[in-house]
Design goal:
alpha+beta, 2 domains, 409 residues, six-stranded antiparallel β-sheet
């Protein structure tokens, strides 16, 4: 009798251990080749653009579809992601998951509508747009607790998943006439009037330019200044470059936009903390007292946080001084032999500015007083007015988005 009791007790303990300690996490890649062998996944495909109705199918869509991050889920908490034709589930092997795919057609869905409003309303239909609300209510978001938390909508990921090209050449369809007229959408950002504006970056560089040129140097404590407010580069962008734009493009740009120009001194921070220093939300204790933290301008360049949050969200826990690891999954990375200027200054000093080097590393050029006179890549950035409509396009390089300039601005 005692032996039976002992055996029963052991059995109960074993069962208890199994229940308390679930199976270890595994990454299960499910693709078209083996999908028919699986009985733990339902693939749900949207019937037509914007219908919100789905049919269950037996294989992954080949193109023009994106994973709906909000609807896709696993019953026992596993996390689901879909990139490059492969679906990855991180969790227990026994979990059952539902993968919902929407027709990737923001261009069709938002045609002849306010572009910003329609994109925000339907952003889930583009798997590369992430809403930075700081809430972890979506299992497919890898690092939701490390977002900017500014209620922005930003494109994140590599060029294979991000389709955010926009052409400003006054044509109505087709590829862009010249690369000079081709831009990309960084994201949508809320302004002081509680409206959303699209933020664009030029797809190609203006060339290698100095932050301060030798003829227009503002010195602080005997050093060349890193103050964007008085830099020759700011003057060049808002003078020569702005004046070179077609008048139809100038009408689209938000004039005298507010730019935050605080800085950061430390590269061993995550994109979220870097963003807070840039915006002045958290004050870098060593911020150089002589420098202003805001300015107004039509044209600027990208923030360091713009670049960092353009990487796939799985990298957002990476420190800036290791950000070269993200370059293959960051659409803002460009392979050049020169550094690229960003708007962030090194706040402990009056003469150093951050940049992105050819490997994708985010840091500051540290050649003492000559740092701001270095010649680096420059890609202009500006915000569109909030009342711009979408005319046509799919956001792809050979079929970029186009705006209805004449009638809506």
């Amino acid at each position: 009798m005692k032996r039976k009791i002992i055996l029963s007790t052991i059995l109960i303990l074993i069962v208890g251990i199994v229940l308390i300690y679930p199976q270890p996490e595994n990454e299960i890649v499910k693709n078209e080749a083996n999908i028919k062998k699986l009985n733990s996944l339902s693939i749900m495909l949207e019937k037509e653009v914007g219908s919100g109705k789905y049919n269950e199918v037996n294989e992954f869509p080949q193109e023009n579809y994106v994973l709906n991050r909000n609807l896709s889920k696993c019953l026992n908490g596993s996390k689901i992601n879909y990139e490059n034709g492969s679906l990855t589930i991180k969790g227990t092997k026994t979990d059952y998951c539902y993968a919902y795919f929407d027709y990737d057609a923001l261009g069709s869905l938002c045609r002849n509508q306010n572009m910003a409003e329609c994109f925000i309303k339907n952003y889930q239909k583009d798997g590369a747009i992430i809403y930075h609300d700081g809430k972890c209510d979506n299992d497919s978001e890898a690092n939701c607790g490390l977002e900017a938390e500014d209620l922005s909508y930003r494109y994140s990921g590599g060029n294979d998943v991000v389709h955010n090209y926009i052409c400003l050449d006054n044509k109505t369809t087709g590829s862009c006439e010249t690369n000079d007229d081709l831009y990309r959408i960084i994201g949508l950002f809320k302004n002081d009037q509680d409206q959303y504006e699209m933020k664009l970056i030029k797809n190609t560089s203006l060339g290698n330019m100095q932050w301060h040129n030798s003829e227009n140097i503002d010195k602080v404590d005997g050093h060349y200044s890193n103050e964007w407010e008085y830099s020759s580069l700011k003057n060049e962008l808002n003078g020569t470059f702005y004046n070179s734009l077609d008048t139809s493009v100038q009408k689209l740009i938000f004039k005298d936009h507010n730019w935050q120009i605080a800085g950061c001194s430390d590269g061993s921070v995550t994109p979220q903390q870097f963003y807070k220093y840039e915006m002045g939300i958290d004050e870098d204790v060593g911020i150089y007292k002589a420098n202003p933290t805001t300015t107004k301008a039509n044209i600027g360049i990208m923030y360091g946080s713009d670049y960092c949050f353009a990487a796939s969200d799985k990298w957002w826990n990476t420190k800036l001084n290791n950000y070269s690891l993200t370059k293959e999954e960051n659409w803002l990375y460009t392979s050049t032999d020169k550094n690229e200027w960003i708007l962030t200054r090194r706040s402990h000093y009056s003469f150093a500015v951050w940049s992105i080097d050819p490997t994708g590393y985010v840091g500051y050029n540290g050649t003492y007083s000559s740092s701001v006179t270095a010649k680096y890549v420059v890609r202009p950035v500006f915000y569109l007015l909030s009342n711009v409509n979408l005319l046509s396009g799919e956001g792809k390089l050979n079929n970029p988005y186009r705006l209805s300039v004449a009638n809506n601005v």
